[in-house]
Amino acid sequence: MSGNILHVENMTMQFGGVIAVNNLSIDVNEGEIVALIGPNGAGKTTTFNCITGVYEPTNGCVTFCGSTIASNHPQGKMKKLYAGENKGLYKRVVSHTPDQITKLGIARTFQNIRLFKSMSVLENVLIAKHIRARQNIFTATFRLNYREERKARRECLALLDEQALLPMKDDLASSLPYGLQRRLEISRALATNPRLLLLDEPAAGMNPQETQELSEFIVQIKNKYNLTILLIEHHMDLVMQISDRIYVQDFGRLIAQGTPEEVQKNQHVIDAYLGVVEDA
Ligand SMILES: Nc1ncnc2c1ncn2[C@@H]1O[C@H](COP(=O)(O)OP(=O)(O)OP(=O)(O)O)[C@@H](O)[C@H]1O
């Protein structure tokens, strides 16, 4: 393992009166699998949304591979707003769109699988691949990047082969069984060549055997594609088995962090989360 790849510093995300993420600081080092766990409504998905540019954090800063990708605090750079009700005003903010963040090397999957259900398996992966392509409306219209398109297609077919999805390449995404839809969603994320992969409840809806297979799959893709992984998950077997470190969030705040052994023994975590799971 080597240096820091993701640094989240004092990040807060407020929706009106709701503080979904409260002064959160986390670090992820290259090559690690890090889990973010906590009860329902703890702020985990909102944390992912702030890291991936879906939301601009109300406060705090996110750094990826040493570059600031979101910043909104008094020391932040002043930016002029050109649209919206605050047009013309200056704001202390640095923010990127989700597409820009994907291009920088962060990919994610969602709690509820988000595929283009009426498109084929191959088309789903090709669309993700195009986020990284050097296309514009002109080159796309006149197909000037034909060589690049063919290369993208070859790479997507190879990826589907590696993920055992090649036999279904022409099938509609919606026709795949649930477990394979999850795998396709992860393949789409991999098609963008990420360095950091964020997985939001990848085992949701899976039985114990599928969850075990998924644990092995996550470790496999991490090693095969040299990934760093940050994941949100409620299946504690998976979390404890594959995580190098765990952060625990509750009511937006970080309440604990450490190795799986340390977190399992932490009384705050047992009270806020693990105890509840055992009793359920
Ligand atoms: N766009 C939004 N507008 C208003 N409130 C929001 C919004 N997004 C999230 N919240 C609120 O922020 C809090 C944290 O939600 P979040 O989805 O991040 O939790 P979570 O830890 O991911 O929960 P779960 O494990 O159930 O997915 C909740 O109270 C939620 O209702």
From TrEMBL:
List GO terms (cellular component aspect).
plasma membrane
Q: State if Nucleotide-binding is listed as a keyword.
A: yes
Cross-referenced PROSITE patterns: ABC_TRANSPORTER_2
Task: Name all ABC transporter domain ranges.
Answer: 6-276
Q: Which UniProt keywords apply?
A: ATP-binding, Nucleotide-binding, Transport
User: Is Nucleotide-binding among this UniProt entry's keywords?
Assistant: yes
Origin, by domain of life?
Bacteria
Return the protein name: Branched-chain amino acid transport system ATP-binding protein
